[in-house]
Amino acid sequence: MTSSVENKTVLVTGANRGIGKKILEEAIERGAAKVYAAVRDTDSAAPLVKEHGDRVVPIRLDLDEPASITAAAETATDVDVVINNAGVLKQQAALDEGAIEALDFEINANVYGLMRVAQAFAPVLKARGGGVFVQINSVASVKTFPNMATYCASKAASYAITQGLRESLKEQHTHVVSVHPGPIQTDMGREAGFGDAAASPALVANAIFDAIAAGDFLAWPDPMAEQVGAAYQSFAENVVEADMQDEL
């Protein structure tokens, strides 16, 4: 399944900064008719409206508040592409004193938030003929780094849910994309200490829309991600993306 975002309506969670802002800008650059900037505080999207005019529509959505997600889906009934970019990170190793609390916080946003967005918007996409659902995961979903073990666990779980969504939404002709960046130059990345070695968020935005256009499930946007993706490719092709229903 291949598609373009030209003349389509796109929704991006966490669109006011970092990767989300670049995704919104790239969607407009590629001809999207409208982009919903789904953010916790709609005032934070004012600069985007000032720059892009009525092609950007702020809408309130907080991954921690299920009611806000439901309300957003009831408002954005014209959306063709949903990109769930928002997420959280706590730098906690498994043995740290606050590790369980950190994992609970990350699971709530990164996993339950994903599920809430998918449950709310799947019917909207179905009504629009299928559309596209994109989840920003991470190389940390397939490789655990000890100083952020709880984050990695949450991203591994979100990737597992994304794989399930790929199969579940196939019947309604919704194309699911799982994006796996490495360290990226964002506020979150700086707080995590990624430094100058982190890649540009523009690489993530480009990879998303290239994957949509190509009909791909997995996207590995930056140099570190490409290295992981190359090593992972055989497993992805022969296990993750293979039809194993008859074998279970």
From TrEMBL:
PANTHER family hit by this protein: NADPH-DEPENDENT 1-ACYLDIHYDROXYACETONE PHOSPHATE REDUCTASE (PTHR44169)
Protein name: 3-oxoacyl-[acyl-carrier-protein] reductase FabG
Family: Belongs to the short-chain dehydrogenases/reductases (SDR) family.
Molecular function terms, GO-annotated: 3-oxoacyl-[acyl-carrier-protein] reductase (NADPH) activity
Coiled coil: none
UniProt-listed Enzyme Commission number(s): 1.1.1.100
NCBIfam families in alphabetical order: PRK08264.1-6 (NF006120)
EC top class, as a word: oxidoreductase
Keywords of the record: Oxidoreductase
Organism: Allorhodopirellula solitaria
Taxonomic lineage from the root: Bacteria, Pseudomonadati, Planctomycetota, Planctomycetia, Pirellulales
